[in-house]
Amino acid sequence: MKLGDYFKRIQYTGNVKPDLATLTAIHRGHLLHIPYENLDIHRDCPVTTDGEQIYEKIVKRHRGGWCFEMNGLLAWVLQEIGFNVTMLSSFVGREKTEPTPAGVGDHLILRVELDQPYLADVGFGNGIFEPIPLSEGSFQQGFLTYKLAQENNRWWFTNQIYGGPGFDFDLKSHQLSDFAGQSTRLQTSPESGFVKTTVCMRFTPDGGMFILRGAVLRRITAEGAHDQTIDSRADYERVLNEYFDLKLLDVDAIWEKVWARHQAWVKSNG
């Protein structure tokens, strides 16, 4: 595991020191060059919480990952540089009126201590593009707005308008291995959204993003969201390559599942 190889992966050539400028540049570079994706679940390849295996997959094999992989890797990178990093557990899409579940949450995020604490998260796919202060308020990044609020000893993150649900969390410290049970559940349970649908997400330099959910490609820009159905295996492979920098050898097997689910979805929706 070498920092230099990770920096090549995200095309980072700036300073390497534990300050806000470095944190912000690495956070942006990670999201620009490493896609959020769950394709291994649909390739029948187990997804791990082992740091070395995550590094091998994302850095060496030029793949992406989901929150446990993406933020697990970023935590290692930042700690190697000298940042003070804490892994935090969060729950996605929970209502404030619901009781807080016991145990570790279904989303890993990072707290980074600088002049003040910052929230870093490269593992939400359509969440923040840059770290935000861990303080109450609204945060504008490009044309997207995010919010943080504190209530009853918990923090509540409200995602941008195109991003779906946010998450809530406390400040208890965790290790990557603590999330192994949730990782297994989310990639095996028939009720898990990750099992039901393939997803790839990647930011663009203007702060917009591409989202490929099943067979539907969504482009989010300052003008709004535009959806396009990908209706052939060739176009699906082209989209993976062109928009997400993913080159897979077994596209056929994934595409068959994607298209069958899409047709079933179209049929069920009239």
List the defining traits of the structure above.
270 residues; alpha+beta; Arylamine N-acetyltransferase fold; 8-stranded antiparallel beta sheet; 5-stranded antiparallel beta sheet; 34% helix; 25% strand
Textual characterization of the structure:
By secondary structure, the chain is an alpha+beta fold. It has a domain at 183-265: Arylamine N-acetyltransferase (Arylamine N-acetyltransferase fold, 2-Layer Sandwich). It is 34% helix and 25% strand. The chain has 9 helices and 13 strands. An 8-stranded antiparallel β-sheet has the order 5-4-3-2-9-8-7-6, with helices on one face. Strand 7 (144-151) and strand 8 form a beta hairpin. Helix 4 crosses helix 5 (67-81). It is globular. It starts with a helix and ends with a helix.
Label the CATH architecture of the domain at 183-265: 2-Layer Sandwich
Using only C-alpha atoms, the radius of gyration works out to 18 Å
User: In this structure, how is the largest beta sheet organized?
Assistant: 8 strands, antiparallel
List the helices and strands in order. HHEHHHEEEEEEEEHHEEEEHH
CA(first)-CA(last) distance: 50 Å
Summarize this, please?
The mean pLDDT is 95. The radius of gyration is 18 Å and the shape is globular.
